[in-house]
Design a protein that fits this description.
With 432 residues, the protein is α+β, with helices and mostly antiparallel strands. It has 2 domains: 101 residues, Serine-tRNA synthetase, tRNA binding domain (Helix Hairpins, Orthogonal Bundle), CATH 1.10.287.40; 310 residues, 2-Layer Sandwich (BirA Bifunctional Protein, domain 2), CATH 3.30.930.10. Helix content is 40%, strand content 21%. The strands form 5 sheets. An 8-stranded mixed β-sheet has the order 1-11-12-13-16-10-9-4. A 3-stranded antiparallel β-sheet has the order 5-7-6. It has a 3-stranded mixed β-sheet with strand order 8-14-15. α5 crosses α12 and α7 crosses α12. The two termini are 54 Å apart.
Length: 432
């Protein structure tokens, strides 16, 4: 959420920065400014009438003490009181409308974010590794997995619906190995604290991290019949981990906080995505190792760079070619001020595909969730910056392993970094 005072004080600057996100954001700013101006007019009228009523009350009291008839003035003040009551209701409704508009506004892009309309305008920052040259035509992961009997889309659809997957045997083990490898790397080498969090969260939590109201249609939710309370299945561990410090004041000396969590993620992913409707690229349920940081404003951009490098280290150790791109203003997420995407090479598709997004949300989530820090030297508490990134999406990493390590005989070699997690197993072979 943006600071309303900033929008009031610098409306042209805010509108200009948000315009690069698209016309919708600019229209929201105009609507918000109009609503705020109307609210202030209502508030001034109410305050003026309350002052008038106070003066009249004093005058009526003095008239009564002198034995004079004050009934006419009393009747007028009853009308003023009715108008004040109506105005208070209108001010409350205006406050709610402004709050709703603030919740819809996206974050301000950092000045360094490149201007662009969409994904095609994202500049490449760097690459690592050379795509493997195959002596045969590489297959996509769904063909590899089905031929080995390790990926089962048909039974998953029977159990649930399309865009779910059953992993059999060594594929399930590989998913578990990838998760353990990522958690060990981030906790032992990169210094993150591992946390285990709920997979169901309240609407207030979703609102605080920016998932609501914008992404309501993409979320799975449950309703408790006894008290009609709604709980949402998390679309990413970013949601509960960021919310750990909601409504808290953190000592500056304890920042930055660095957390890592493994969870399943649940997304409705409405619509069709062509090739992405096949296989495991875009699923309703998928596993992810998530990195979250809570920092001071002075720390956050250094921490974004280190978070991105931490995610890259996973791909380097698995020897998977990848590239880093910076998202332009037209492609950056609702809550983010700056984002780097890591895209892994998938030979079965012949292109790089996103496997991690690392974002600095600055105060956008902290303001909504009331996450503050107290400066070490004293002074007024201020909002923290929050950051998040995939470290990595486990299912997409499994896809990358299947496609990059496939062999001509249909088997898949296991990256050396994962073999200790699979009791030395060197290849995925057909399920017996």
């Amino acid at each position: 959420m943006l600071d309303l005072r900033l929008i009031r004080d610098q409306p042209d600057a805010v509108a200009e920065r948000l315009a690069s996100r698209g016309a919708g954001a600019t229209a929201l700013v105009k609507e918000l400014l109009a609503a705020d101006a109307a609210r202030r007019r209502l508030l001034k009228e109410a305050e003026d009438l309350k002052a008038l009523r106070n003066r009249a009350s004093e005058a009526i009291g003095q008239a009564k003490r002198r034995g004079e008839d004050a009934s006419t003035e009393q009747a007028r003040m009853r009308e003023v009181g009715d108008r004040i009551k109506a105005l208070d209701g209108e001010v409350k409704a205006a406050d709610e409308a402004i709050e709703h508009l603030l919740l819809l506004l996206p974050n301000l892009p950092h000045p360094s974010v490149p201007i662009g309309a969409g994904g095609d305008d994202n500049p490449e920052i760097r690459r690592w590794g050379e795509p493997r040259k195959f002596s045969f035509t590489p297959k996509p992961h769904e063909e590899i997995g089905e031929a080995l009997g390790l990926l089962d889309f048909e039974r998953a659809a029977k159990i649930a619906k399309s865009r779910f997957t059953v992993l059999w045997g060594s594929a399930a083990r590989l998913e578990r190995a990838l998760t353990a490898f990522m958690l060990d790397l981030h906790t032992r080498r990169h210094g993150y604290t591992e946390v285990w969090v709920p997979h169901l969260v309240s609407g207030a939590t979703m609102l605080g991290v920016g998932q609501l109201p914008k992404f309501e249609e993409q979320l799975f939710k449950t309703v408790e019949p006894d008290d009609n309370r709604t709980l949402y299945l998390i679309p990413t561990a970013e949601v509960p981990v960021t919310a750990l410090h909601a409504q808290e004041f953190l000592p500056e000396a304890t920042l930055p906080r660095r957390y890592v969590a493994f969870t399943p993620c649940y997304r409705r992913e409405a619509g069709t995505y062509g090739q992405d409707s096949k296989g495991m690229i875009r699923q309703h349920q998928f596993d992810k190792v998530e990195l979250v940081k809570v920092t001071t404003p002075a720390q956050s951009y250094d921490e974004l760079e280190s978070m991105t490098r931490n995610a890259e280290e996973v791909l380097k150790r698995l020897e998977l070619p990848y590239r880093v791109v910076e998202l332009c203003t037209g492609d950056i997420g609702q809550a983010a001020a700056k984002t780097y995407d890591l895209e892994v090479w998938l030979p079965g598709q012949g292109k790089y595909r996103e496997i991690s997004s690392c974002s600095n949300c600055e105060t956008y989530q902290a303001r909504r969730s009331e996450i503050r820090y107290r400066p070490t030297g004293g002074g007024k508490a201020d909002y923290c910056h929050t950051l998040n990134g995939s470290g990595l999406a486990v299912g997409r990493t499994l896809i990358a392993v299947l496609e990059n390590y496939q062999n001509a005989d249909g088997t898949v070699s296991i990256p050396e970094a994962l073999r200790p997690y699979m009791d030395g197993m060197e290849r995925l072979t057909p399920l017996k």
